[in-house]
Amino acid sequence: MTHVEDELTSQPECWARAAAEAAGHAPVLPAPGERVAIVGCGTSYFMAQAAAALREDAGQGETDAFAASEFPHGRTYDRVVALTRSGTTTEVLDLLARLKGRTRTTAVTADPDTPVREAADELAVLAYADERSVVQTRFATTALTLLRAHLGLHPPAAVTDARTALTRPLPEGLVDCGQFTFLGRGWTVGLANEAGLKMREAALAWAETYPAMEYRHGPISVSTTGTATWMLGDAPDGLAEQVRATGASWIAGDLDPLAELVRAQRLAVAVAASRGLDPDRPRHLTRSVILAP
Fold this sequence. Notes:
alpha/beta; 2 domains; Rossmann fold; globular; five-stranded parallel sheet; about 15% strand; four-stranded parallel sheet
């Protein structure tokens, strides 16, 4: 079993622990009414997108998401939350350094014994969700679970659905598709973005991601026999029928959307195996991006 497979199968237990411990992390996480930005790089950026949409939709306060390198320094926030598995990513550390002394910062990390300890004002540590793999799975989803639970939006069914996602067979023929499109709405757009990234990282697959309503504004043109379109969350009316009419496979997400992401992670590993690739050794990637000064 690869590190990725081992880690992605541990997600139900990690989520249950994060949900149980969310109240203990509350003092360092955004309070209702605060103006907040959530930042990250790669996978963490997509989790930031999901968390920001959830928080704002819940009426907890204006919430933005940015890649750490694209943070708008002309804006004012009450708190910036940085998601960083390794605690060593250059863009995140540079941003936290620039915010020091003028904006309160919290880092959600798996490893507190890294430069992020000094860079951030406060830490929420998820050491039990750390990973050996380059390709992120459980840290990202556990960090999002922590934030969902902090918002009061973590449904108990999410953990049950995650266990189902680990055992339910993937749709027949899906692994052999030549192109994959992942769609989301609201907070699940971030999950769709992450599903596509997993396919590219682990399997070198052609994968695209869009807000579901945007899919018909051009991207549906790539859908045909031998491609697949996967919806994370509730689909817009009529979209499934339109996708099937192209000849593409339509996969409806009927589990909690975060559990659907677990199924997409499994797909990425399965496609990698079918292509003779090792998902623990993704091409051109390292566990943390540390740029030379």
